[in-house]
Specification:
The chain is α+β, with helices and mostly antiparallel strands. The chain is 36% helix and 24% strand. The mean pLDDT is 96. Bound molecules: ligand DP6. The site of ligand DP6 has 16 residues, from helix 4.
């Protein structure tokens, strides 16, 4: 009997500064627009993938528990791409565990698919360099293509599979921002990102949002390059509000915010007016990512924790690229 093909990889989630919302091609996950993110340090998913000649189905454990069928099917479909590239049909056992709760408003699909892609490619001996790995991770979850890299990352939208992948913009040391994630709800969201992306085209605001993206991407790149926090705040908050405007005006409408989401956003505006370098961005959920300039997080964190409705706060510096780890 041939031996199992095994590898383990680790990846961190990321927060989008300019967001991915909507696909030109849902199947290939070719996004309607490019995006920019910061990989989040301190948070990670570790995935062990073992292709086993004795296995008859793919099995997926998340944090030690058998995953729901939909999650298993999504991962099995992703592994089909890896199997096709590797030229075998072996089923796999996948063990994925994260050191952060999946309902905490931190995209666990990004770190999970980045880690699963890297581990499964390595297990099969596929010699994938980072751009190819990023392309493959994208097929599992769009934002996962950015988690292949550490620090500040741009996903080039591209116009076909080959040209849609992420590249590094700057290492984390370039500008050690801190993302304070204000968790206001840990309940699983009722509509996931994948369905949300499919609704984006129904909003009359999406074409305007997409058309303006090159401008926001340039502004964001420049703000990062020059470490200009005022410019970064402006583009990050505008971009988040534009995405939520699209969500809220889709059919059916998608409203991810809760009253505490607005409480945090308004507090951040007030703290910035008082002179603190902090800005807010919200992904597909109610929790608020508060980006702080270096040296600001120690003042902002206690204020955030004191706000009504804030359950807990995660503190994330820029994180590392996805990597293989010893079994
Ligand atoms: C709002 O990457 O989670 O976080 O490709 O369907 O897995 P799928 O979607 P996903 O979408 C992320 C949406 C977002 C913005 C972003 O991360 O750019």
């Amino acid at each position: 009997m041939p031996r199992a093909l095994v590898a383990t990889a680790e990846a961190s989630p990321n927060i989008a500064l300019v967001k991915y919302w909507g696909n030109r091609d849902d199947l290939l996950r070719l996004p309607s627009n490019g995006s920019i993110s910061m990989t989040l340090g301190g948070l990670r998913t570790v995935a062990r993938v073992a292709f086993d000649p004795a296995a008859t189905v793919d099995t997926l454990l998340i944090d030690g528990k058998v995953a729901p069928p939909a999650a298993r099917q999504r991962v099995a479909k992703h592994l089909d791409l890896v199997r096709a590239a590797a030229g075998h049909h072996l089923k796999a056992r996948i063990d994925s565990s994260s050191n952060f709760p999946s309902g905490a408003g931190i995209a666990s699909s990004a770190s999970a698919f980045a880690a699963i892609t890297m581990a499964s490619a390595a297990a099969c001996g596929l010699p994938l360099e980072s751009a190819a790995l990023s392309r493959l991770a994208r097929r599992g979850s769009g934002s996962a293509c950015r988690s292949v890299w550490g620090g500040f990352v741009e996903w080039l939208a591209g116009d076909e599979d080959e040209s849609s992948y992420a590249i590094p913009l700057a290492p984390g040391e370039h500008w050690p921002l801190i993302d304070l994630v204000a968790v206001v709800s840990q309940a699983p969201k009722s509509i996931g990102s994948t369905e949300g992306h499919q609704r984006a085209a129904s909003s009359p605001l999406q074409p305007a949002r997409v058309a303006d993206t090159p401008r926001r991407l340039s502004a964001c790149r420049l703000a990062l390059l020059e470490r200009d926090f005022a410019a970064l705040s402006e583009v990050v908050e505008l971009d988040s509000l534009m995405m939520h405007a699209v969500m809220m005006t889709s059919s059916p409408a998608l409203v991810y915010w809760q009253p505490s989401t607005l409480t945090v956003m308004n507090a951040v505006t007030e703290w910035r007016r008082q002179g603190h370098e902090v800005c807010a961005t919200v992904d597909a959920g109610p929790n608020v990512h508060c980006l702080c300039a270096p040296g600001q997080a120690s003042a902002i964190r206690p204020k955030l924790q004191d706000l009504p409705g804030v359950d807990l706060v995660f503190e994330c510096p820029p994180g590392e690229a996805a990597r293989l780890v010893q079994d």
